[in-house]
Specification:
The protein is built from 16 helices and 16 strands. The protein has about 400 residues and is of the alpha/beta class. It has a domain of about 280 residues: Rossmann fold. Strands 7-6-5-11-12-13-14 form a seven-stranded parallel sheet, with helices on both faces. Strand 3 and strand 4 form a beta hairpin. Helix 3 packs across helix 16 and helix 11 runs parallel beside helix 13. The protein is globular.
Length: about 400
């Protein structure tokens, strides 16, 4: 498949003139150096001065950003934990409390934050509820609600609680049961998610990718077809093509409106096929992304994943996505280039996984601008550093909005 650059094949607004890989240029000749030290809270402008994000937004004369984050699984909830601190607290009573503002250096740069979440899970507690109550799987949506909530509250911990015993209850998450109960009461799954978000006082809106009862199938590299997300993930073969059933599933109108109005759209991190591409198979989503006025950023995974992306480089992740969307949908990609500790590399190698290669030249050949940095946080597992990624995204959003304003 021949892949054209976004500027040549994708409808874009005038602000999408490429500033060249590795830097962002706004109308006032301010350059945001992408080789920033993420933990410092500062960035270089014109190579001579350091500005905080808040000062940069003021000097660029930008308004608060409208942000849409798409994905699923642990990746999306991790990203949302970083982005939420740039949204003003939804509760005036708690806005000034230490629990509500643990990141005191984060200015309110986001006026509206929306998460678009995959709904094809058919395993665990979500799968059981899906089968028993004929509802969409609530698990990923619940994780996003918790990620966007006011942290360290009893209610948030309650939503995360998983029953360890009890016939019929063992393995279920309280939050999943809560959503299922609201869905039964209201008769509307999307409304149940909205009400649950209000209970948790989330700093953003959460939309299922579709409210159709969708499932996944995959054509594997040996020609076989595997049905169901759990079976696809468990397969020993590589995914060649992901299929959403029914194929005519449509997104919520609120999702399309959020994408059309967004200043910044992120996709990833998350499992390449079962967390990211699954959202992009919903009818109308690829077209909305292609026509979006906002800056579109792919947050690349840190490690390859068995069955979904083994041996794939960063550019090949993008190519697999484009094969399913039918064309380019990214302006930028964030790629981790910091080394991973030998201990974690060895642990992941037992599953055949390895750090994703940042093949920058091939990415740029796809018309996508590359931002590299240390985006990883090591623990018992490797995760994205939510604060670092969120801060970098804010820098991209501010600079891109400044260019649009000037044009």
């Amino acid at each position: 498949m021949t892949l054209d650059s976004p500027s040549s094949s994708t409808p874009r607004s005038p602000d999408q003139t490429s500033p060249g890989a590795g830097s962002l240029q706004n109308a006032g000749s301010m350059t945001v150096n992408t080789a920033i030290q993420c933990g410092s809270g500062k960035l270089s402008t014109s190579g001579t001065a350091d500005l905080t994000l808040e000062t940069l937004a003021e000097s660029a004369h930008t308004s608060a950003l409208r942000v849409v984050a798409m994905g699923g699984g642990t990746g999306l909830s991790t990203l949302l934990r970083g982005l939420k601190w740039y949204v003003a607290s939804p509760s005036p009573a708690t806005a000034g409390s230490p629990a509500a503002q643990p990141h005191g250096d984060c200015p309110p740069l986001i006026s509206d934050l929306a998460a678009v979440v995959t709904v094809t899970d058919d395993g665990g507690s979500s799968g059981r509820l899906r089968k028993d109550f004929n509802i969409l799987p609530p698990g990923d949506l619940r994780n996003c609600m918790v990620a966007l909530s006011e942290d360290e509250t009893l209610l948030t911990r309650l939503f995360c609680h998983r029953f360890r015993s009890g016939e019929g209850l063992e393995g279920h998450s309280f939050g999943n049961l809560f959503v299922a109960a609201l869905a039964e009461i209201t008769g509307d799954f999307a409304q149940a998610i909205k009400l649950s978000s209000q209970v948790l006082a989330t700093r953003g809106h959460i939309y299922p990718a579709t409210i159709s009862n969708v499932s996944l199938s995959a054509r594997m590299d040996d020609g076989s077809v595997v049905h169901g997300e759990t079976n696809i993930t468990a397969s020993k073969h590589r995914i060649a093509q992901l299929i959403l059933e029914p194929a005519d599933a449509v997104p919520l109108p609120e999702t399309l409106d959020a994408l059309a109005r967004a200043d910044l759209i992120t996709i990833g991190p998350g499992s390449l096929y079962t967390s990211l591409i699954t959202n992009l198979l919903v009818k109308g989503i690829p077209e909305a992304l292609a026509a979006a006025r906002g800056t579109r950023v792919y947050v690349c995974n840190l490690m390859t994943q068995a069955n979904e992306s083994l041996n794939l480089t960063a550019s090949q992740h993008i190519e697999r996505i484009y094969e399913h969307t039918g064309g380019p949908i990214f302006d930028y990609v964030l790629v981790n280039t910091a080394p991973v500790s030998e201990e974690l590399r060895t642990r992941y190698a037992s599953e055949g996984a390895a750090p994703i290669e940042a093949d920058i030249d091939r990415i740029e050949a796809l018309g996508v601008r590359v931002i590299v940095g240390d985006f990883a946080a090591e623990g018992s597992v490797l995760r994205h550093d939510a604060d670092c990624v969120a801060r970098t995204l804010m820098q991209i959003g501010i600079a891109s909005q400044a260019r649009r304003s000037a044009d």
